[in-house]
Amino acid sequence: MSQKVTLDDIVFENRNKEYGAYYLRKNYSKYLTKATLIGSAIFVAVLGGALAFNKITAANAEKEIMVDLSATDLQEEQPEEEIEIPEDVPPPPLEEPPPEVAQEKFLPPEPKKDEEVKIEEPPPPAEKLETAVISNKTVEGAEAKDVFIPPPPPKEVAVVKVEEPKEEQVFVMVEQQPEYPGGEKAMYAFLGKNINYPAAATRANISGRVTVQFVVEKDGSIGTVKVLKGIGFGCDEEAVRVIKSMPKWSPGKQNGRAVRVYYTIPVVFQLSE
């Protein structure tokens, strides 16, 4: 009788069957059946436990809780006590009217047109006004205690000092720098055309650069001018004079509004050979 040849025998023919792969393929169906049975048993056990737990919970929920309310524990409502209102209650005594306050007649005269004012009745003395109220007729009565007395005039007058407005801030750098009309080239052309070489500097053969700083105001005019570095012999004063004679600039701007800005330029003095 010939031995039954399986697919595994054909696949592993002329191969090492002692290797684990051959053993696993040969017993695969056995292990699959065993795993299926074990998994089914676990599933049935879990399902049965869940059903049993639900039945126990439902049975406990159906039990009624009996509360014994004894009528002896309840307190009887007590009737409200009646308040006796006495009959013949005498009315409260009437208060006496306050005494009439003393008054002094004092009517200011009413002037008429084209007539002189005549005071027919003089005003009452100050002693009577201290204990009486001013009225349009004189009435005898008790002395008035709360008579208005005007306050005395103030002894000292407070002097308020008004501070002078502070000078507006001058910026060093802004979003839009001030600009000479026509640009920087036109500015240096203006300086070269308008500078007069000082005679003292010419005699002393002085040449050099004067550094000048000035303020371009919000309207473009030239404000404060000062020399940061000079060379003397009248050159510093001449540089300041020419800067002050400049036409109005386009003002500098910060956040879209015109502001005061510092601007620094060198003014060169050079003798021609």
From TrEMBL:
Biased composition (Basic and acidic residues): 110-121
Span of domain TonB C-terminal: 182-273
Acidic residues biased stretches: 74-87
Cell compartments where the protein resides: Cell inner membrane
SUPFAM superfamilies linked: TolA/TonB C-terminal domain
Segments crossing the lipid bilayer: 35-53
Biological processes per GO annotation: protein transport; siderophore transport; transmembrane transport
Pfam family, one: TonB_C
Natural source organism: Leadbetterella byssophila (strain DSM 17132 / JCM 16389 / KACC 11308 / NBRC 106382 / 4M15)
Composition bias, Pro residues: 88-100
Region of interest (Disordered), residue spans: 74-125
Family: Belongs to the TonB family.
Domain of life according to the entry: Bacteria
Topology in membrane: Single-pass membrane protein
Name of protein: Outer membrane transport energization protein TonB
Gene Ontology molecular function: any one: energy transducer activity
